[in-house]
Structure formats: C-alpha cells, structure tokens
Amino acid sequence: AKNAGKHRYACYQPHMTAEAMERLQLEQDLRQAITNNELELHYQPQICLNSGTLKGVEALVRWRHPEKGLIMPQQFIETAERLRIIDALGEWVLKTALAQTVRWHETSKERFTIAVNISPLHFEDEQLLTTVNQALEASGLPPEYLELEITETRILQTKAGQANATALRQMGVHVAVDDFGTGYSSLTLLQDLDIDTIKIDRSFIAPLADKPEAAILLGTIVGAAHAFGAKVIAEGVETLDQARILHGVGCDLVQGYYFCRPVPALELPATDQSLYPD
Ligand code: C2E
Ligand code: CA
Ligand code: CA
Ligand code: CA
C-alpha cells in the first residue's frame, strides 16, 4: 500500500486490502473522537523520593472506542499527528487535565503539578502559546503548576521551538524534557536551554539492578541536571530496588508501576499518604 503523504488525504479505493480499510475507518473514527467525547485521561503520580508523597501527576490520553474498547496512545498519536489533528487533541488534553487539577486542588490540601505531553509538531506551532494561555485562564490554574513534556529535543533547538519554550517559561509554565537520554537529547541541552525538569527514560532504569555502572551513569546525569538547576524524574520505576538506587544517586522524583499505574481521576491516591514504603 502507498503511504499517504503529508497532505494527501486517504480515501477509499477499490483495490484496498482489509487492513488498509480498517486503518482508514480508524482514521475517520479518530477525527470524530474528540467531538464524540471518546477521549479520556488517566493520571500517573510522580512521587518525591525524600518525602514519599505525590508531587505531580502526568496526564496520559486514552481513546475509548465504541467498538474496539480502550486504545492506548501509541496506537493513535502518530495517526493524529499525520492527520494534523494533534493540535486539537493536545488542546483537549490540556483543558481537561487543567480543569481536573483545579478540582483536585480544591479538595486536597496539597498542591501538585500537572504534566501534559505536547507533540513536537504542536510545540513548534505559534498557536500553542494561545492555547496554553486560554487553558490556564479557563481553568484558573496558576501557571507554575503546569509542566509541558516534550520528547524531541530537536524541537527545542529550532527557532520556533525555542521561542515557544522561552515564552512559556516567561509565562511561568515549566518545561520538561521527556525520554531524556534517547534520540537527540544530550547534557549540553541543559547548558543551552532553561529546562526545568528532565525525565530519564526507562531504558536507563531497567539495568540498575544488575549493572553497578548504570547507577554511576545516572548519578552523573543527576549531578549535571542539578548543577543547571533542573529537577530529575525517573520514569518506568518498577521495583523498590530501583527506587532505592535512584534515591541514592540523588534523583528527585520517581514515576512507575511500582508506585502507581496510570489511573482514572477518581482513583488517584491521596496526597497526604506516603507512596514510598520503607
Ligand atoms: P511517555 O510520555 O513516555 O509516558 C510514559 C509511558 O510509560 C506511559 O504509557 C505509561 O503508562 C508508561 N509507564 C508508566 N510507568 C511505567 C512502568 O513502570 N513500566 C513501564 N513499562 N511503562 C510505564 P502510555 O500511557 O501508553 O503512553 C505512551 C506514550 O504516548 C507516552 O509516552 C507519550 O509519548 C504518548 N502520549 C500519552 N498521552 C499523550 C498526550 O496526551 N499527548 C501526546 N502528544 N502524547 C501522549
Ligand atoms: Ca511523558
Ligand atoms: Ca517518557
Ligand atoms: Ca516515550
């Protein structure tokens, strides 16, 4: 099958395979997913290693398809990018996550941040600043409680991406580099840009138990981040051992199945209890 190019809209053709037709159907469904109210957010706690308490949550989108059930983001984010509906999706995620966070802040004593993933495509868009501003104003959430996560650090090196990052930080919004250590990201990023948080990819966390060198590498990353005033979150923490090693090398926050899976808003653990048993 031919790949649909950037500006080519797929449409039905008689020679299409069943698989191609299913993909096309899914694209059509995705275009309507927002208006049909089929998207939902799950939230995963970010836990402070020193206090054991929840300091932030990351919003992770899911698509509740009427026939296919719950579809995970890896199955539709790329399609949303290709169809150029990622901005609308991002806007929905922002508004929903911010409104939810304000509700949490109203009912719990503790304030915590909300982390929202922004597609690199969206991050380069001028419109992003307006969208973020509007979402903040509509919800009433103070900007310092919002953290935007961006995976592709290449974007932070383009003119448009850099301008957006600077403007966001001037607004008081935090910027996090997601999947740190993979792809194009490197420590020089900390020097060149004002990054609030780095999120260390889980490929660095998994080897911790059986390779002592892995902890040394992590300690170096943490040290460099701290020297530049950035916080460090480790992702994909699945065991207590990993958490202890991370604590030992000075990592600030952890996120992972060991502590809590991504959950619907109503199932978020209380903010006044320790999620770190020791
Ligand atoms: P990510 O931003 O790196 O998010 C972390 C992913 O790791 C999530 O998968 C999360 O459920 C999973 N995870 C959390 N703890 C663990 C753990 O201990 N072990 C393992 N193996 N996995 C863990 P999820 O929810 O399927 O999201 C996948 C990716 O989809 C995200 O990766 C992010 O890049 C993208 N994504 C999710 N929500 C959004 C969104 O609202 N907008 C955009 N643009 N992308 C999103
Ligand atoms: Ca993320
Ligand atoms: Ca990540
Ligand atoms: Ca990822």
The tally of strands reads 10
Catalogue the ligands.
ligand C2E, calcium ion
What is the beta-strand fraction? 15-25%
Shape category: globular
Measured between the Cα atoms of the first and last residue, the distance is: 55 Å
Question: Taking all residues together, what is the mean pLDDT?
Answer: 91
Number of helices: 10
Compute the CA-based radius of gyration: 20 Å
Low-confidence stretches: 1-7
* Arrangement of strands in the largest sheet: 1-2-4-5-6-7-8-9
Instruction: Sketch the topology as an H/E string, one letter per element.
Output: HEEEHHEHHEHHEHEHEHEE
Helix content: 25-40%
State the secondary-structure class. alpha/beta
Main beta sheet, described? Answer: 8 strands, mixed, barrel
Subcellular location: Membrane
Protein name: EAL domain-containing protein
Domain EAL: 23-276
Can you walk me through this structure?
The chain has 278 residues and is of the alpha/beta class. It is built from ten helices and ten strands. Strands 1-2-4-5-6-7-8-9 form an eight-stranded mixed beta barrel. Strand 1 and strand 2 form a beta hairpin. The termini are far apart. Mean pLDDT is 91; it is low at 1-7. The chain binds ligand C2E and calcium ion (CA) (3 copies). One calcium ion (CA) binds at residues 178-179, 199, 235. One calcium ion binds next to strand 6.
